[in-house]
């Protein structure tokens, strides 16, 4: 998730931009840069790495001027590098742009511009924006930006400067956040409030499709079509820490709430224009190569491995190819049967997990083709794999993984459908039916989140127990494993996830009066079977909380003590919904026990040792 800061006023802009960018560091970034109007014109300094690198460069050669834009980049198109960092300019070096988000049709636009003779320096989607604006410029930067924006599809927030109009800073918001700060004789733009909180507490919050034209003395607000709009000033009374968490108490809760956006972003640009088929243009594996694959191995650790368990069912159901999912630390020592006809899918949020990386190398040594699903462009896993699907969850700060897991599920759905299209195992109507259901998932997650209070009460009651169980069958079992891990890692309550039908083979001995059993019952073809297993635990005094599909509440309420209904979707897609109440359950249980939710004991965000 990139960070944008912009300033127009009477003070030196460089320190304001750098300080602002530092306040956005929590969003994660791999490179940074600023553009400032100096006496020489519009000048840019940018570099890969931490902000300290940028500061180092600017120390010897500062950019002096009172108008500027700055950016921290979190790579999505093109690896982290000096040249891919923002701000980007056009060929005349008169226009400079910072951008947060994704331009879906950038390749098309880039090709058109190249035909017109434009030269591009970077691999980014952003660079085309400065070129487009330059093409459209006829003496009014506002009109040029509006015309350029009309040609772009996707999600973006922009800050734009042109040397032709040094007293104006233009900002646009289209599905990526952007705010305007209002000061005396100075104005700001930023991706988030912390970046400017030290200078002003009065802001305008832009909505999608809105833009602002900033001068030292005023802010003109309008739609991207150019219709003027009026807005109330929002006065921020949060402290800095609260502002970084966008008003949420913890990063984990914020990230749980970011899942609808993460789903949309991970799907964006990966469907055909009519939304009826999948188009994974980033994959270099050809249909012939994919057809030659006779088995798939999914290898990962922890939460990512749990996404891989769901991935196994997705690929087997959609593409009808046999899949095994393994824990990475076990995989390479069990002498797995890997041949050139094996596709090995490694899944890793960080892309740096030592066990996963070792498994990837083992797979390559044995001649397999490797596909990585990762959240970090330019990570070791992304660099070493043959193909990469980037999950666009944005940086995950909380140690407990939430939005990365669900974005990995989305990546598996997309890949499974792509695979099915190539093999012809599912007809077009079915693929388009699944995609339509996937597009409803973000709203359905929002609905679950709006009922968080219900889960909070359950969490408070389970937090009083030392042990509990999660049970489910089929995909519900895969999600139960993730629910149990989440609870253990942040609340330190001992829990076990069991395939519901397996309880009677020993574990029932542990079910005693009052023990909480969290049951997932979303796979309706297995519902009766799971209900029989629930009877077994109820008979021994368990207190059963169930996660069920909407519409089944009355029926299931007869067999359980309490329940939570998730919106209806296709059985294959339910993990993308049913995990959300479990994430909330562990969050609120940890909170009730007074633990450090974002930094649980004995767990690191990136495990780079074996
Ligand atoms: C759980 C968690 C860990 C990670 C695991 C793999 O919330 O964070 O179980 O999922 O260490 O990490 P990545 O996905 O970075 O390879």
Task: Write up what this structure looks like.
By secondary structure, the chain is an alpha/beta fold. It has three domains: 3-237, 4-Layer Sandwich (Glutamine Phosphoribosylpyrophosphate, subunit 1, domain 1); 246-439, Rossmann fold (3-Layer(aba) Sandwich); 449-592, Rossmann fold. The longest helix has 22 residues, at 428-449. It is globular. The model has no long low-confidence stretch (mean pLDDT 94). The structure holds fructose -6-phosphate (F6R). Residues 301-304, 348-350, 353, 356, 400-401, 489, 606-607 line the site of fructose -6-phosphate.
Structural key phrases:
single chain; 610 residues; alpha/beta; Glutamine Phosphoribosylpyrophosphate, subunit 1, domain 1; Rossmann fold; 3 domains; 8-stranded antiparallel sheet; 6-stranded antiparallel sheet; 20 helices; 24 strands; 37% helix; globular; binds fructose -6-phosphate
Strand fraction equals 15-25%
Q: Can you tell me the CATH architecture of the largest domain?
A: 4-Layer Sandwich
**Percentage of residues in helical conformation:** 25-40%
* Assembly of the depicted chains: single chain
Low-confidence stretches: none
Q: What's the CATH class label of the largest domain?
A: Alpha Beta
User: Sheet bearing the most strands, described?
Assistant: 8 strands, antiparallel
Structural class: alpha/beta
Radius of gyration of CA atoms, rounded to a whole number: 25 Å
Number of strands: 24
CATH superfamily of the largest domain: Aminohydrolase, N-terminal nucleophile (Ntn) domain
Mean pLDDT: 94
Total discrete domains: 3
- Could you tell me how far the N terminus lies from the C terminus, measured between alpha carbons in angstroms? 29 Å
As laid out across the biggest beta sheet, the strand order is 3-2-4-1-10-9-11-14
Q: Find the CATH topology of the largest domain.
A: Glutamine Phosphoribosylpyrophosphate, subunit 1, domain 1
Number of helices: 20
Which molecules are bound besides the chains?
fructose -6-phosphate
Based on Cα principal axes, name the global outline.
globular
């Amino acid at each position: 998730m990139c960070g944008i800061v912009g300033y127009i006023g009477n003070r030196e802009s460089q320190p304001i931009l750098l300080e602002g960018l530092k306040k956005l560091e929590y969003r994660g970034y791999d490179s940074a840069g600023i553009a400032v109007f100096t006496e020489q014109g519009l000048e840019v300094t940018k570099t890969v790495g931490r902000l300290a690198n940028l500061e180092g460069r600017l120390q010897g050669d500062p950019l002096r001027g009172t108008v500027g834009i700055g950016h921290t980049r979190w790579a999505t198109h093109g690896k982290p590098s000096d040249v891919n960092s923002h701000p980007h300019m056009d060929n005349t070096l008169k226009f400079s742009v910072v951008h947060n988000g994704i331009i879906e049709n950038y390749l098309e636009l880039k090709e058109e511009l190249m035909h017109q003779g434009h030269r591009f320096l970077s691999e980014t989607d952003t660079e085309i924006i400065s070129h487009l604006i330059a093409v459209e410029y006829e003496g009014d930067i506002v009109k040029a930006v509006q015309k350029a924006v009309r040609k772009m599809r996707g999600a973006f927030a922009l800050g734009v400067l042109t040397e032709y109009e040094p007293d104006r800073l233009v900002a646009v918001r289209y599905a990526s956040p952007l705010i305007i700060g209002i000061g005396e004789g100075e104005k700001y733009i930023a991706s988030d409030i912390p970046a400017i909180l030290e200078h002003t507490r009065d802001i305008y919050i832009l909505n999608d499709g809105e833009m602002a034209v900033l001068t030292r003395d005023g802010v003109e607000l309008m739609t991207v079509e150019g219709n003027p709009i009026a807005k109330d000033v929002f006065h921020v009374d949060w402290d800095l820490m609260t502002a970084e968490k966008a008003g949420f108490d913890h990063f984990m809760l914020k990230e749980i709430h970011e899942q609808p956006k993460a789903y949309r972003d991970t799907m964006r640009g990966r469907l055909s224009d009519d939304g009826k088929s999948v188009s994974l243009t980033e994959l270099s594996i050809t249909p012939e190569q994919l057809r030659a694959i006779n088995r798939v191995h999914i290898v990962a650790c922890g939460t990512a491995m749990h996404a891989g368990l769901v991935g196994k069912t997705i690929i087997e159901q959609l593409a009808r190819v046999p899949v095994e999912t393994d824990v990475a630390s076990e995989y390479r020592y069990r002498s797995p049967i890997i041949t050139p006809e094996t596709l090995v899918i490694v899944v890793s949020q960080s892309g740096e997990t030592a066990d996963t990386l070792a498994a990837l190398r083992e797979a390559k040594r044995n001649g397999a083709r490797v596909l990585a699903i990762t959240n970090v462009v330019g990570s070791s896993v992304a660099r070493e794999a043959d193909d990469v699907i980037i999950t666009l969850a944005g940086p995950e700060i909380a140690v407990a993984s939430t939005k990365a897991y669900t974005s990995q599920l989305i990546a598996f759905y997309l890949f499974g459908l792509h695979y099915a299209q190539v093999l012809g195992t599912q007809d077009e109507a079915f693929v388009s039916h699944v995609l339509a259901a996937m597009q409803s998932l973000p709203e359905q997650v929002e609905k679950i989140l709006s009922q968080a209070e219900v889960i909070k009460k359950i969490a408070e009651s389970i937090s009083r127990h030392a042990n509990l169980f999660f049970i489910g069958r089929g995909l519900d079992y895969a999600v139960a494993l993730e629910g149990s891990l989440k609870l253990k890692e942040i609340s330190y309550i001992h829990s076990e996830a069991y395939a519901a039908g397996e309880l009677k083979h020993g574990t029932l001995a542990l079910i005693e009066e009052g023990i909480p059993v969290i049951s997932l019952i979303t796979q309706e073809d297995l519902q009766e079977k799971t209900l029989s297993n629930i009877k077994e635990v109820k008979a021994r005094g368990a207190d059963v909380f169930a996660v069920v599909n909407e519409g089944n509440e009355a029926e299931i309420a007869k067999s359980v003590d309490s329940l939570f209904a998730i919106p209806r979707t296709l059985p294959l897609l339910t993990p993308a919904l049913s995990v959300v109440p479990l994430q909330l359950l562990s969050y609120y249980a940890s909170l009730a026990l007074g633990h450090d939710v974002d930094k649980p004991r004995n767990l690191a965000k990136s495990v780079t040792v074996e």
